[in-house]
Write a structure and sequence with these properties.
globular; seven-stranded antiparallel sheet; disordered N terminus; 29% strand; single chain; Protein Transport Mog1p, Chain A
Length: 470
Amino acid sequence: MRVAGAVLILSITLWPAAGQAQNAQKPANRTGNPATADTKSHPATPDSKSDPKKKNAATQPARDPNSGIALADRALIQFDLAWIGAYNGLITGEPNDKTTAAIKSYQKDHRFKETGTLAPPERAQLSAASKEKQDQVGWRMVDDKVTGAQIGLPTKQVPNTGPGKTGTRWFSAQGQIQVETFRLRGPGTTLADLFDQQKKEPPGRHIEVNLLRPDFFILSGMQGLKKFYVRAEIRDAEVRGMTILYDQATEGTMDPLVVVMSSAFAPFSGSGIAALSGSPGKRKVEYGSGIIVSAAGHILSDRRLIEGCNIIGVAGYGNAERVAEDQAAELALLRIYGAPDLVPAALVHDGAKGPDLTVVGIADPQAQGGGKAVSTMSSRLSGDTILPAPPPGFDGAAAIDSQGRLFGMVRLKDGAVANAGSAAPPGSATVVPVETLRKFLDAQTITPATGRTGTDGTEAALVRVICVRK
């Protein structure tokens, strides 16, 4: 199990070096392939002698069915395939046989035609499956302010945060799982010295994988009764890295997570999978909706909408302060100051059920020609899924029941927000029940409003939330 895990982690995290190795081999592949390398010892067939075209076709590799897809989109496909355990290759965005094989395997498992390239509905379903896995562990991309690195974290596995020796530490309640960033800089700093030190410290490390390259290194193995993984990168005499430490009892969950965490880790600007895909699922400027819940300026929205924002704005009111978050419910509480005559939504739902909903939100500017109008759409609730799904911009919107009362807050999922420069695949949406909203506000000592209800009242309480990232 340890050896297999080490090989898997090594295969996916060596993409900078492995990508260079693959590129170095390309010239040799242009003239032939291994299957025809010994043609001197075997007489040519009559067909290959008489028809040069057939001979050339026999020596050329098959065209990758995904070669026409943009690099960023291919990287995201590999990322999603890795999340569901179908892909353990290099997350580079480059077309390769492993990606095609993983797609065909995925298509076979779901009874799709095995083409090796994903049709839009298949891509949407894969995105949904990947997002479900991410939601199960509370996956978040976090900016580590101490080291300057960006790191992907399973926040449900490591909900606690504290200072590390030279970075930040995230850990589970009993310390079964620990993630720590580190930073080393100064004159004479070398990657090789740190590599040698990490192999020896702490004492008792049993190294199973060790790889040193000019700009990064990887170590993994056993540290006492725990498994460990270290990745570090150097740039301009500064080293930034991360260490993951976890009990063997958690390896069923953590082994696949380490693969994804390694690919997502961006120690410097322009590194990691974010450099290939533009931060999966995130745009530089992203638009959503928010529900005003107090006359003092409190606004409820989706926590993921404001994830990684350098500036949070509310259209018509200016900048907003991030007051609180609930990671389990994926809720965020914002606040604007000095805004007169705010009309909060009434959170008075008594738990009545009903499949018919009216969704009230503010669509993305691209969906309404640059406009900012509040709009409504009729939907139905199937389980906890809203059908049809609202358009981009409705993340954080309000869902009203057939009696005109606030039923809950809308959460868009599965690629309903587009990446910069690419169209979003069809998404889905769920509802955070109003009871959950009330509990979250109660925890922040905010008394929910009991004012206007109905579509008109809710429309008055809707605002556009704008997230600006670096």
